[in-house]
């Protein structure tokens, strides 16, 4: 039997991989790293992968913009979500001394989540494509002045030393991940729906869209805007709402929204994740 293939962005030991493995503990699943989000999405699109786990937003530092942009571009669906609590560590080579550290490598989101810590330690931040990838990088380069911010598990994978744990500025630090797939099979117990739309640049156009949900007493849990990149100052709106697309009230509201927009995409309905 062929292994079920789950992709994630970054190296082994990344938070994306950790979230994927918790969600899919079945030993028949294989987990495949991709250096970039685009390569990851294309892996799902061309069926190299069965699905992928991608970060969409962090509770303290906000949205992962590239994920939003690729959700517009690629013909893929959202079939689930995961909330993963983030604990960052300062990690160095086993032959390095903490007193020698002056620069820190990590993903820009992780660096931002540890900004106060680095300022207090007078450390220079250098962005990398991935948290675990930054640990791998300082191991391979043997830079005695360099540290990485990543998970404790990443330090264990690459046989590195943890200088300090839980260095994030906010202890209530969660990242929300989406599970994306080329195939959409809705379930009756799905209770959250995500859509994307763009609207005419006219007075009241957004109000009229939001009114479709309000009049039907549908709760919106998130609304996010991103530039369309085609026309200056025009935007895509990403909306999460409570309910299943097969529910009569939800389907009626989405049909009304679709007729009033110049672009509409249903990402899918899925089961709302618990924040643990």
Automatic annotation (TrEMBL):
- What would you give as a GO molecular function for this chain, any one? prephenate dehydratase activity
The record's EC number reads 4.2.1.51
Which chemical reaction does it catalyze? prephenate + H(+) = 3-phenylpyruvate + CO2 + H2O
Q: Which PROSITE patterns match?
A: ACT (PS51671), PREPHENATE_DEHYDR_1 (PS00857), PREPHENATE_DEHYDR_2 (PS00858), PREPHENATE_DEHYDR_3 (PS51171)
Q: Which GO terms describe its cellular component?
A: cytoplasm
Source domain of life = Archaea
What does the record give as its pathway? Amino-acid biosynthesis; L-phenylalanine biosynthesis; phenylpyruvate from prephenate: step 1/1
- The protein depicted here goes by the name prephenate dehydratase
Q: Which organism is it from?
A: Candidatus Nitrosocosmicus arcticus
Give the taxonomic lineage as stored in the record: Archaea, Nitrososphaerota, Nitrososphaeria, Nitrososphaerales, Nitrososphaeraceae
